[in-house]
Amino acid sequence: MAKAPSKEQPTASERALAAVSQSQWTDYVERFRPAEAAMIKKAQLTEGERAQVKGEVAADTAAAFKGLSRDTVAKGAQSGANVSSGKTKLSLAGDAIAQGEVRGVGQAVAETGAEIDAEQQKLRIVGHGRQVATDVTSNLSRGAQRATSLALAASQARFQRNLDTVDAVASVAGAATRKLNKPKKFLSQADADAVDYIDLDIRPRGI
Amino acid sequence: MADLETSFRSFRARETPSFGGGGGGGDPDQVLAGITRDQWQHFLDTYKPVEDDVLSTVLSTDFSAQGDKAGDTARQSVTAAAGMAERNISRTGATLTGEERSAISRRRDLSLAKASSQAENVTRRGLSESRTNLIAQLVGIGRGVAQTATAGSQSVADLAAQRESVYQSQRTQAHNTNMAAGASLAALLFAI
Fold it and tell me: Which of A71, A167, B36, B73 could cross-link to A108 by cystine, CB 3.0-4.6 Å?
């Protein structure tokens, strides 16, 4: 009788793979998922960030125009002109309005740029997300393949046992049939002798 | 999928799966299923809302709201600058004549028109270019999604074909074996 084999135990390589995989998964969940959450949060343009962008533009514009206003007043004073004259006042007002114009356009453009950056960042997040979904599909695909292989192997084993049973019955039947159909002696000894006699009889004489 | 969800209903994202692998832990298949379920849930919770947001906004080609907002930003800046200029002049003790006020108003209005139109145009143009680029990237991502779906369907079809092939093979084998066994039994009956 053949003895049924016991299940194979995991190899050292298999155990090492399991341990390293577990470690990596834990690492991912504990350290990298928070980074993903931060990445997504960062892609949301808040009112605070909008204000910050505008503030930076305002500061840059003020710095750029500060010298210009001083020059206007200083030049006016140096040339002996009255800084309170209409011409100087209009010049100062013009400078201030020009500064407001540059600042306003700059702020609008910078805010739009920040929105565009946020949208691009969101799209990168969508790409990351779809990679996660693809990983899921790959896992499921591999799992389905493995499950189907196992199911088919089990089916084949069961089927083979059935075939073997039928084969065994057929073999027994075949053996019994052969036993029952064992060839009978068609010639009695007397018949055989007669044949020999006849044979002798028909041989040419002298041989 | 349904089997996975049924089997690992209790799996929680915060639980770190134990791989075991003969080391005294869980069934590796179940662990993989748990991770897979967790990943899918993570996708749904974390990434899907961003995806919905992007798809609903990026595909829009109406930038009037953003343009209006940009124009408002520019106008507010010019208006504030003009007001500040008048206050600063007053602070020096000087007064503005009606003609001077009128000149400053004209200058301000000119700047308002210039700044707002420039801000609106730049914003609309910038967004339009950016959206075109984003949509192209979205289409690429969409193709990837379609490829993944196709690959999954192909795998399912392959497995179905594999099962059908084994079934047909076993059926034929069973038929042949049964015929042979029947013949043996018939021969036995005749012999008896």
Answer: B73
